[in-house]
User: What shape does this take?
Amino acid sequence: MKRMAFLLVAVASVAGVVAFMAPVAGHADKQAAPIFVTEIPPGYRDWRLISVAHEEGNLNSFAAVLGNDVAIKAYREGKRPFPDGTIIAALHYGHVPSEENNRVFGRVQSFVAGSPTNIQFMVKDSAKYAATDGWGFAHFKDGKPADEAFMKPCFPCHEQAKASDLVFTRYAP
Assistant: This one.
């Protein structure tokens, strides 16, 4: 009988500890999960071109939109939603007239990339970024990540492109 009582107390104790720790662990994981990407993915300059972009207005920039191998494969196969591991980079530059080209054309009509303005990334990880439909967003200026306040509008803006898994860029083969 003593053994049975001891066993019941032991099982109850373990169950109590597990029940007590489970909410704490869940809470800690939620708090620890980053909302935004804070490190530049290595090797992004060697990725393939997805497309180019020209934004006017306040941005007034050119961008080369690059993708890692997972992104390129998904684009080529038309796979949506994008699989985990997809990373898309947008390298933004101001643009300036090309004096050399414009001399040849005889008028101002040619523009080239000027100074870099920022780099942005979208990283697909359904578990890590579950709160933002599986995407982590990043913005780097001079190699430094933007703060959380700057990043808050990213998901609400991209959420408008739900039909294309939050990605605005079309593939230009």
Q: What stands out?
A: The longest helix spans residues 2-32. The chain has two domains: 1-32, 35-164. The longest strand covers residues 111-124. The beta strands are 48-55, 61-67, 87-97, 111-124, 135-141, 144-145.
